[in-house]
């Protein structure tokens, strides 16, 4: 009886574990759009302060990509407790920003118990000049930018801080220079965290990048140009692309075929004018 | 603009000295290392295999020999023309140096100076 029960238990646990990969795989394969942006980006505070907003109320953009949630690590410079929230001033050496963590007085914050800490408002564990890892969304109030924090927790391992800075660099490069591989520049991030970084970078990209990864360097260049070039709805003409990238029109046409056939770009006013297909 | 404190290695000290800081808007820097000696108002910070830096301490500094610390400070001249030192403004203790892979820090310094746009304003 007991044995049967235990079996059931372990089986249940195993079954849950077995289901998870399948569950996470299928949406990842199907979700190729940028619209449903639930990504968590590692950033520096300077990137948040520099983030642009195309129009009021629009999502903030870092490196021309929308950011929903951000993750950063910095030193707590000030803690001020109000009845509804705790405001931290966080400084990571690249800038300083306010972080607001709303206090839920009715339920204990379960996220803080993950690493064995007693449930609490998180305030007791964070101290001024100590390091904190912050995860939240970028908000603005008037002209002031702040972070609506989901989680603020103390950081004790300095390697985590360093890994974060490298990760932020890698993701910045991913958005500005395209996925790693091919003619990717041997960046500073390469040495120590290269592999992890490349694996990690994949997670942040839209699904389109999966299709893109298998394409030639010219196709990648065209794609990133189309993405970043200021343009109207009709996109960019092939000849313009060829001129901008300084690549023969023939090659541009060939690489364009590649992109068109996989559906990451589409032709607009005529066969030779292309725009990035965004869902 | 808020204060920025670039992470550096001992070999970069000269670039952040006030006399050479024309290319930097700030010369307050961060250095990571192990405290290897303390002599009253000065101390020695050993930065992995990248050499030592003399720290000029404030009277209320609470450093301990053998600990890994991250120091925020300004590059200053040492007395008697012994090169550059760091006037300590603040420090964070990180405990046992063996818990930190200093090579990662070297990569961080490298990355932050190679891809400055996301870390520091350089003018």
TrEMBL record, chain A:
This entry carries the following GO cellular component terms, namely:
chromosome, telomeric region; DNA replication factor A complex; RNA polymerase I complex; site of double-strand break
State the protein's name.
Replication protein A C-terminal domain-containing protein
Superkingdom of the source species = Eukaryota
Kindly list the biological process annotations in GO that this record carries: DNA replication; double-strand break repair via homologous recombination; nucleotide-excision repair
Residue intervals of the Replication protein A C-terminal domain: 172-272
- Entry's family note: Belongs to the replication factor A protein 2 family.
Region Disordered, annotated ranges:
12-38
Main location group = nucleus
Localization annotation: Nucleus
Q: Which organism is it from?
A: Penicillium antarcticum
Protein keywords? DNA replication, DNA-binding, Nucleus
InterPro entries assigned: NA-bd_OB-fold, RFA2-like, Rfa2/RPA32, RPA_C, WH-like_DNA-bd_sf, WH_DNA-bd_sf
A single Gene Ontology MF term assigned here is: single-stranded DNA binding
Query: Membrane spanning segments where?
Result: none
Q: What is the lineage of its organism?
A: Eukaryota, Fungi, Dikarya, Ascomycota, Pezizomycotina
Where does the record place a coiled coil? Answer: none
From TrEMBL, chain B:
Question: GO terms for molecular function, please?
Answer: damaged DNA binding; single-stranded DNA binding
Q: InterPro entries given for it? A: NA-bd_OB-fold, Rfa2
Q: Which CDD domains match?
A: RPA3
Any Gene Ontology biological process: mismatch repair
Sorted alphabetically, which keywords does the UniProt record give? Nucleus
Question: Whose protein is this, by species?
Answer: Penicillium antarcticum
Concerning its family, UniProt says: Belongs to the replication factor A protein 3 family.
| Gene Ontology CC terms | DNA replication factor A complex; site of double-strand break
PANTHER family in alphabetical order:
REPLICATION PROTEIN A 14 KDA SUBUNIT, REPLICATION PROTEIN A3
> What is the designated name of this protein?
Replication factor A protein 3
Which residues are in coiled coils? none
Compartments where found: Nucleus
């Amino acid at each position: 009886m007991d044995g049967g029960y235990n079996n059931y238990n372990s089986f249940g646990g195993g079954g849950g574990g077995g289901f998870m990969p399948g569950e996470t795989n299928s949406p990842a394969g199907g979700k190729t759009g940028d619209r449903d942006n639930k990504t968590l980006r590692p950033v520096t505070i300077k990137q948040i302060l520099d983030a642009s907003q195309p129009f009021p109320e629009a999502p903030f953009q870092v490196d021309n990509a929308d950011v929903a949630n951000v993750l950063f690590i910095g030193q707590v410079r000030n803690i001020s407790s109000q009845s509804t929230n705790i405001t931290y001033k966080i400084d990571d050496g690249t800038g300083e920003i306010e972080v607001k963590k709303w206090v839920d007085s009715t339920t204990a914050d379960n996220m803080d118990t993950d690493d064995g800490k007693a449930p609490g408002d998180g305030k007791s564990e964070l101290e001024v000049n100590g390091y904190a890892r912050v995860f939240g969304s970028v908000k603005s109030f008037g002209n002031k930018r702040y972070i609506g924090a989901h989680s603020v927790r103390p950081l004790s391992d300095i390697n985590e801080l360093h890994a974060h800075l490298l990760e932020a660099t890698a993701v910045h490069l991913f958005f500005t220079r395209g996925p790693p591989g091919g003619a990717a520049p041997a960046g500073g991030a390469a040495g120590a965290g290269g592999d992890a970084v490349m694996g990690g970078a994949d997670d942040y990209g839209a699904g389109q990048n999966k299709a893109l990864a298998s394409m030639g360097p010219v196709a990648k260049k065209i794609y990133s140009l189309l993405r970043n070039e200021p343009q109207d709805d009709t996109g960019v003409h092939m000849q313009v692309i060829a001129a901008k990238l300084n690549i023969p029109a023939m090659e541009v046409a060939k690489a364009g075929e590649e992109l068109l056939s996989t559906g990451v770009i589409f032709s607009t006013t005529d066969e030779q004018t292309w725009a990035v297909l965004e869902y | 603009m808020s204060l920025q404190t670039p992470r550096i290695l001992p070999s970069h000290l000269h670039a952040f000295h006030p006399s050479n800081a024309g290319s930097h808007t700030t010369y307050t820097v961060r250095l990571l290392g192990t405290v290897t000696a303390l002599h009253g108002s000065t101390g020695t910070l050993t930065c992995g295999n990248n050499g030592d830096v003399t720290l000029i301490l404030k009277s209320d500094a609470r450093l301990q020999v053998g600990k890994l610390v991250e120091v925020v400070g300004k590059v200053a001249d040492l007395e008697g023309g012994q090169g550059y030192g760091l006037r300590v403004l603040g420090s964070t203790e990180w405990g046992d140096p063996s818990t930190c892979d200093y090579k990662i820090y070297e990569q961080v310094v490298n990355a932050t100076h190679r891809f400055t746009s996301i870390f520091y304003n350089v003018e």
